[in-house]
Amino acid sequence: MDSRGDALVALGRSLQQQGYVFVTPTPETHRRVNQRAEASEGGLARDIRDAFGWSRPFRADLLPVSMLTLLESAGELEQTDGLYRSRVRFSSLRGLLLVHSAFPTAAANAVFFGPDTYRYCTLLEHWAPRARRVVDIGCGSGAGGLFLASKAEEVLLADINPAALVFSQVNAALAGVTVRVVESDVLASVEGPLDLVIANPPYMRDPAARLYRDGGGAHGEGLSVRIVREALARLSHGGKLIVYTGSAVVAGRDSFHDAVTPILKDAGVAFSYEELDPDVFGEELSEPGYEQVERIAAVGLKVVR
């Protein structure tokens, strides 16, 4: 880990020592809460949760000098008109503290964390077995792989986004877990046998083509389908694949389910499919490309080779 990562680890440990806890909501909820704070309090951070959770601007005297220095050393401190703002956010998940991009996640290489992450880990809790090796495709903050670390002999975190790999290394250090990280387009740079593959890929249409958000395909299902195809070709006998994703429902039809079912049947694998939440990111339905979409459902797919 480089000096930037070391600074983020030290910052995270300082937050842990102060008992910091923050559950990250959806972007729409985040926007509304900050809008309310702007109207009633001027929008400035009042404490460390406001600064590192709600991503609000703050005055220099809000944080200890050591925290400001660590943020600056990590290259994650911005200053405008005499106010400061953290470019990173810290979220809590089942005893883990995870660093990721600050709100709003507008940058092309932003690393996202939100309610999908919590649902993803809940799914893993119920579906993921003990494994020799867990490979987390498109790991982002590393939440999925780190959540399963106690069930695995080895955790490999893979992502095409170098920023995600930095954050996932930091989060592994904060969790006290040893992992391997690899920059990889799906499984292209992942070697060795695959006995448990997990993924929480992007599943939206995104004109800006942000890595964490743009799933490709007609309605964002493209990358999820690709992950299934490539993992099926690599799973060892008895190997398992768990995918948490979102699926556009058009005229009552689940687009991801319809796309992936023939692939799974042709491969002769056992699989189960479950709708986990019938309606997520409803605000996206007003965006171009979603004119025929009734709802976006959060879904889970488990495959056994």
Please count the beta strands (DSSP E, at least 2 residues each): 12
Per CATH, the class of the largest domain reads: Alpha Beta
Q: What value does the Rg take, in angstroms?
A: 20 Å
What does the main sheet amount to?
A: 8 strands, mixed
Q: Name the helicity range.
A: 25-40%
Strand content: 25-35%
Succession of helices and strands: HHHHEEEEHEHEHEEHEEHEE
Total separate domains? 2
Backbone shape: globular
The name CATH uses for the topology of the largest domain is: Rossmann fold
Mean pLDDT: 95
Give a verbal description of the structure.
- The chain has 305 residues and is of the alpha/beta class.
- The protein folds into 2 domains: 3-101, no CATH class; 115-304, 3-Layer(aba) Sandwich (Rossmann fold), CATH 3.40.50.150.
- Helix content is 33%, strand content 27%.
- The chain has helices at 3-17, 27-41, 48-52, 65-73, 115-127, 143-147, 162-175, 222-232, 255-267, and strands at 77-80, 83-86, 88-93, 96-101, 131-137, 152-159, 180-183, 194-199, 235-250, 253-254, 270-277, 293-304.
- Helix 7 links the parallel strand 6 and strand 7.
- Helix 8 (222-232) runs parallel beside helix 9 (255-267).
What's the short story on this structure?
With 305 residues, the protein is of the alpha/beta class.
